[in-house]
Design goal:
By secondary structure, the chain is of the alpha/beta class. It has helices at residues 29-39, 52-67, 72-78, 87-98, 121-130, 145-150, 168-180; strands at 4-9, 13-14, 20-21, 44-48, 81-84, 103-106, 133-137, 153-154. A six-stranded parallel sheet has the order 5-4-1-7-6-8, with helices on both faces. Strands 2-3 form a two-stranded antiparallel sheet. Helix 1 packs across helix 3, helix 1 (29-39) packs parallel to helix 7 and helix 2 (52-67) runs antiparallel to helix 3 (72-78).
Amino acid sequence: MSRLYIALLHFPMRNREGQVVVTALTSLDVPDIARTARTYNVKRFFIVHPVESQRRIAARLRDFWVSEEELPTRREALELVAIREDLEEVFQEIAQEEGEEPVVLGTTARAHLLPYRKISWEEARELIRVRPTLVLFGTGHGMTDELLAACDGLLPAVRSGGYNHLSVRAAVAIILDRLKGEEP
């Protein structure tokens, strides 16, 4: 049974000027990341947004695909989506369901530049096998340093050096493949 959870965060994020902001939900993220999560046997995909109207939009997107009878595989993926107001709520929900607190891993294109605890792909794969694990994905221009510092570890950047500004949908797919790969 999978003990891997992912969360797409919209606050606290940075904008291109480095200011702390709340980002808007992107409608493509909901079904696309859900399908990737289902492909890699993620237990739950949390969308975390502090703004009620944005959570309602996410719920409408999820509910549309869950109710669509002609696309059962899309429905199966969207059933993984849980929409929450804040990260603490996600953390507590996982801890209650699993009977222990999850290991929290951050993702950032800047991992190699930050002084926080780094974790290798191999270490992360081992953690996922033995502990509930929550992987955080940011939007906008990434999570704040304070949020990244609060993680138990940072995964390596998808690419170090050069142009490195993937859509979050692409980053989720690459990172889940590196964490789960050909696992049955």
